Amino acid sequence: MFHRISLILLVGFMIFHLSMTKLSFANIISKNSLVNIEALNLPKEDIINIDEELGQNIIVGIPYTFLDSFTESILRMIKPAGIVLYQRNFDSFEQIKDLINQLQTISKEESKCPYFIMLDEEPDGANRMGLLKNIFTLGNPNWAKIERDIVKLSKIGINVELAPLADFPFVPNSFISKRLKLESKEDLIAFNKTFISLLNKYNICATLKHFPGLGLISDDPHYKFIQNVSNKDMIDQSISIFQYGIESGASFVMTCHVIYDALDPNNPATFSSYIVTDNLRNKLGFEGMVVTDDLSDMPLSIQGLDLVDAGIQSLKAGHNLIMFSHNLPRTKEIVEGILLEASKDKELLKIIKSNYIKVTSFKNRYLIKNE
């Protein structure tokens, strides 16, 4: 009996030890013999560092209002580029500021640069902390209140605001109308210009979303996979709002999971290099960070798409950052899967390393200098 108990304890310890082993490409190579290092024609130190480089391609979410040891251990393994915060993470402004400080300490210890701390706090739209609400009560934006709330975001440590919306509702009964209080495309362009300027004033990066526009559809793609059949002229009008936002100084653009037949009938924007690279990057000249909408609980995954493949396709489409904002242990598995694929896919490996340079350079330019 004693020997049986001892064996059970030993097996349990080994499983725990393996589950907490530091995630690294070098470990994966040695344990699974997935790649011949010489065949990749890269310096060995580059291969060993690929886990940290991949981390700077990833945005994750965390589960609680506090930082538990298990969450911390996964963050130290993944070394993500940033954290997206939700209402589940918020109890008070003092609490969230302390949590963000703890997160930034981890990031600087592991990656020598800060996290992107992201938050959806849309003006009179989606929100997590109750800010930027009731700002259109008299029809026009209350810029004094908006600026006060932006100052609060800055003081607690938010450095990426997942706003403003550039999704003008071109079609009748668009679901996005509930999140947008402006009556015309021109009003939206003017509002976004001032809003972006205020965010930049307080060292918060603005994010235009959801490229090339959710105002072209009736149903919410968070709950239903949508293939859009809008004509090219309407899509071009939607894209022009993003163009104005980019010219106004937005440094992030978020894409969406909708198929736009007039642009790419075979892929949602998330996976479309034609939409992300040819249009957003090349045609609009956007040089900032391109981030996916959340991949972890969207209809893409409901329809059975493998999330490792979803992340890879998103990177190959031209995104700098792929977002998995729910279920952190599952995110760790997805990151491990992408690492395994990178060991066999030179194109993917090149993209990961290129994004690492772009993301860390962006942080050095926009975040570190403002600390």
Describe this structure in words.
The protein starts with a helix and ends in a 5-residue tail after the last helix. The chain is 47% helix and 9% strand. It has helices at residues 2-19, 25-32, 44-48, 50-55, 69-78, 93-111, 143-156, 185-201, 232-247, 273-283, 299-302, 307-317, 328-342, 346-366; strands at residues 58-60, 82-85, 116-119, 160-161, 205-211, 227-228, 252-255, 259-260, 289-291, 322-324. Helix 12 (307-317) crosses helix 13 (328-342). The chain has one domain (61-128, 135-370): TIM Barrel (Alpha-Beta Barrel). With 371 residues, it is of the alpha/beta class. The strands form two sheets. It has an eight-stranded parallel sheet. Strands 6-8 form a two-stranded parallel sheet.
Provide the descriptors you would attach to this structure in a database record.
single chain; globular; disordered N terminus; TIM Barrel; alpha/beta; about 375 residues; 8-stranded parallel beta sheet; two-stranded parallel sheet
Poorly predicted spans: 1-40
Helical coverage, percent range: 40-55%
Order of helices and strands: HHHHEHEHEHEHEEHEEHEHHEHH
Rg over C-alpha atoms, rounded to the nearest angstrom: 21 Å
Euclidean distance between termini CA atoms: 60 Å
What's the helix count? 14
Kindly report the name of the CATH homologous superfamily.
Glycoside hydrolase, family 3, N-terminal domain
Number of domains: 1
From the 3D coordinates, which CATH architecture would you assign? Alpha-Beta Barrel
Portion of residues in beta strands equals: 5-15%
Per the CATH scheme, the topology name is TIM Barrel
Mean pLDDT: 87
Shape: globular
How would a crystallographer describe the biggest sheet? Answer: 8 strands, parallel
Structural class given helices, strands, pairing? alpha/beta
Biggest sheet, spatial arrangement of strands = 9-7-5-4-3-2-1-10
